[in-house]
TrEMBL record, chain A:
Coiled coil: none annotated. InterPro entries: THDP-binding, Transketo_C/PFOR_II, Transketolase-like_Pyr-bd, Transketolase_C. This is Pyruvate dehydrogenase E1 component beta subunit. PANTHER family: PYRUVATE DEHYDROGENASE E1 COMPONENT BETA SUBUNIT, PYRUVATE DEHYDROGENASE E1 COMPONENT SUBUNIT BETA. GO terms for molecular function: oxidoreductase activity. Keywords: Oxidoreductase, Pyruvate, Thiamine pyrophosphate. Its cofactor is thiamine diphosphate. The keyword RNA-binding does not apply. Residues 3-175 form the Transketolase-like pyrimidine-binding domain.
Automatic annotation (TrEMBL), chain B:
It comes from Hasllibacter halocynthiae. Keywords: Oxidoreductase, Pyruvate, Thiamine pyrophosphate. The lineage of its organism: Bacteria, Pseudomonadati, Pseudomonadota, Alphaproteobacteria, Rhodobacterales. Residues 32-304 form the Dehydrogenase E1 component domain. SUPFAM superfamilies: Thiamin diphosphate-binding fold (THDP-binding) (SSF52518). This is Pyruvate dehydrogenase E1 component alpha subunit. GO terms for molecular function: pyruvate dehydrogenase (acetyl-transferring) activity. GO terms for biological process: pyruvate decarboxylation to acetyl-CoA. PANTHER family: 3-METHYL-2-OXOBUTANOATE DEHYDROGENASE SUBUNIT ALPHA, PYRUVATE DEHYDROGENASE E1 COMPONENT, ALPHA SUBUNIT BACTERIAL AND ORGANELLAR.
Length: 324, 315
């Protein structure tokens, strides 16, 4: 069936709710309203108010509720609306990440925290704060880039026994339909996919950056430069094996981020490559990320802020041509 | 009570200006959060403050607050469009965040709630300076569910801070009816925190103003905070392009009939403060002014992409 990213996320939740009575959704305006940007459209009509639970504007306690229910064995999926509100639930998410370890393995917190984010048509609530959570052991971060991947990843996230931050990019959300197979998750959270194969330069990306990297790769292809695009899918824990294998194939790697360069989740990838694939490198590890500035409002500044196809292609081209 | 025609006219002007903003900006921006039905609260709450007073306005009505505090209309309009002439230089949006140089504390992240704490901090500073200035902390019924709101009220009460808390209760938060967001009457919380609290008819600008006058006087005299719940109704959608399929059309229509602007106009006419022609002329003048400012802003300069300078984030 052809679906948008948004429809695929909802379909995945619907199928998990169908499969497991312990799965329920919660958040503000997710009932009759269907959630901001239709993020829960149809779930209320299908499952009713008992499993599609509207919340007051009390984010910290909402997350607390989710953690508490998850500790009892439920599988809450909390729609926090926007990633900009992550700061309001950080304590609960920090605690949730520590619970399994600190309880000596007794506690499990199967809790999915959904956030919309990213510069896009919505023109607001764009901030990408996911990198903060790189410093939180025990938490997983998923950032799908296509409708099928959104579907698969959401199902895997709901089935995961750990707290998962699920990122929904607003520029991908309603950006066209693609074929989605409603299947049980073929992969758990973790593995990256090679979205495009190429021998000259590796581009590591996620979410919107994957889409832009694939476009840039087409441009480069016409110039005779073969870019390999690794779509991380899961940003934490990220797939070291897939990234290192690709770096070994190409010897050159460009890392893309939508979170600001300072403290970005890709910095961890860069450090690991430097540590473990130093011998394979034929050029310095390159990064493209927004500058350490709050996400700006004016469209002109927004455009300059995010890595775009042209800059991605230019950076990959420079890497491919780099000689010591 | 001595009737002060300047105040009465000033509040009408602010109401009319609010309606003009709705018309002009709302026509352009699908994400504009309209104030139809709530104009009396904005006019009564933001009118007549001192220059030194600090205002953390509710985001719905934030431009009215900024203009009431002396911000420039042209620069506010430029701020809705991300233009260089804006106070924020195009870096941020003016519809939810007014200029601090005019004593406004807006939203600097997407989250509603934290400005209530900032208002308390401003009030603390006013106490330290002994300047008699106060802080307003205005929030919606939805925002009243945030821990920030509870904590700010408790903090202000304990420290006897000169803060006037105003809940602009329009009975809904996006699609969540107030009874699903608040376990009990909001104004009654005041008692639990140890401050005076009252509920007023938010569609009656004079009632809201009377409550404000009392609360502001108490705050200026060192009597501590007050909570006012102004009960009104969001006749507008959450934002302009809201499909509004979650609300009863008859209910909206009933409240549209209780239009606070029409009600106030009738009062002003009856009392002989302003006549209909004068008010119509003022309405038309303000629409023209806002329209001209908005059109000028549309043609304004846009930020240079080269302006993204990391050093700009540090003072
Ligand atoms: C902390 C936080 N949670 C959720 C939102 C998303 N949001 C934006 S406006 C709004 C409704 C606010 O309701 P209320 O405070 O009653 O103000 P109203 O819109 O009714 O004027 C919500 C939930 C937000 N901006 N901040």
């Amino acid at each position: 069936m052809r679906m948008t990213f948004q429809q695929a996320v909802v379909a995945a939740i619907e199928d998990e709710m169908e499969a497991d009575a312990g799965v329920f959704v919660m958040g503000q305006d997710i009932g009759r309203f269907g959630g901001p940007l239709r993020s829960n459209a149809g779930l209320f009509e299908r499952f009713g108010a008992e499993r599609v639970i509207d919340m007051p504007m009390s984010e910290g306690t909402m997350a607390g509720l989710a953690v508490g229910a998850a500790l009892q064995g439920k599988r809450p999926v909390l729609d926090l609306m926007f990633g900009e509100f992550l700061a309001l639930v950080m304590q609960q998410f920090l605690d949730a990440g520590a619970m399994h370890y600190y309880s000596g393995g007794a506690a499990r917190v199967p809790f999915v925290l959904r956030v919309k984010y990213g510069i896009g048509p919505f023109h607001g609530h764009a901030y990408d704060h996911h990198s903060w959570l790189m410093g939180v052991p025990g938490v997983k971060i998923a950032a799908p880039s296509t409708p099928q991947d959104a579907y698969d990843t959401m199902r895997a996230a709901v089935r995961d026994d750990n707290p998962v931050l699920f990122l929904e990019h607003m520029a991908l959300y309603h950006a066209g339909r693609a074929e989605v197979e409603r299947r049980a998750p073929p992969l758990p959270l973790g593995p990256a996919v090679r979205a495009r194969e190429g021998a000259d330069v590796t581009v590591v990306a996620s979410a919107l950056m994957t889409k832009r990297a694939l476009k840039a790769a087409e441009t480069l292809d016409a110039e005779g430069i073969e870019a390999e695009v690794i779509d991380l899918r899961t940003i934490a824990p990220w797939d070291e094996e897939a990234v290192l294998a690709s770096v070994h194939r190409t010897g050159r790697v460009l890392l893309l981020s939508e979170a600001i360069s300072t403290g970005a989740s890709i910095n961890d990838v860069a450090a690991t490559i430097a540590e473990k694939a130093f011998d394979a490198l034929e050029a310095p590890v390159a990064r493209l990320a927004p500058p350490p500035i709050p996400t700006p409002f004016a469209r002109e500044l927004e455009r300059a802020y995010l890595p775009d196809e042209t800059r991605i292609a230019a950076a990959a081209r420079a890497l491919a041509r780099w000689t010591a | 009570m001595r009737r002060d025609n300047d105040v009465l006219e000033g509040m009408y002007r602010l109401m009319s200006l609010t309606r003009a903003l709705d018309r002009v900006v709302g026509a352009h921006d699908g994400h504009w959060h309209g104030l139809e039905g709530e104009e009396a609260v904005a006019a009564a709450v933001y009118y007549g403050l001192r220059e030194g007073d600090t205002v953390a306005p509710h985001y719905r009505g934030a431009i009215t607050a900024a203009l009431a505090k002396g911000a420039d209309l042209g620069r506010m309009m430029a701020g809705c469009l991300g233009k260089t002439d804006a106070y924020h230089l195009g870096r941020h949006r003016s519809d939810v965040c007014g200029p601090p140089e005019h004593g406004i504390i807006g939203l600097y992240g997407g989250s509603l709630g934290p400005p209530l704490g900032y208002a308390c901090g401003a009030a603390l500073s006013h106490v330290m300076d002994g300047d008699g200035d106060i802080a307003l902390a205005v929030f919606g019924d939805g925002t009243s569910s945030r821990g920030d709101c509870h904590e700010a009220m408790n903090m202000a009460a304990i420290k006897a801070l000169p803060v006037v808390f105003v809940c602009q209760n329009n009975q809904i938060a996006i699609s969540t009816p107030a009874p699903d967001g608040n376990g009990g009457p909001i104004f009654e919380r005041a008692r639990g925190f140890g401050m005076p609290g009252a509920r007023v008819d938010g569609n009656d600008v004079l009632k809201v103003r009377a409550a404000m006058d009392e609360a502001i006087a108490r705050a200026r005299e060192g009597g501590g905070p007050t909570l006012i719940e102004a009960r009104t109704y969001r006749v507008a959608g959450h934002f302009v392009s809201d499909a509004e399929d979650y609300r009863d059309a008859a209910e909206i229509a009933a409240w549209r009939d209780r239009d606070p602007v029409a009600r106030y106009r009738a009062f002003l006419i009856e009392e002989g403060v302003m006549d209909a022609a004068a008010m119509d002329a003022l309405d038309a003048k303000l629409v023209a002014e806002v329209d001209a400012a908005f059109t000028a802003a549309q043609d304004g300069a846009v930020p240079d992409p080269g302006d993204l300078m990391p050093e700009d984030v540090f003072a």
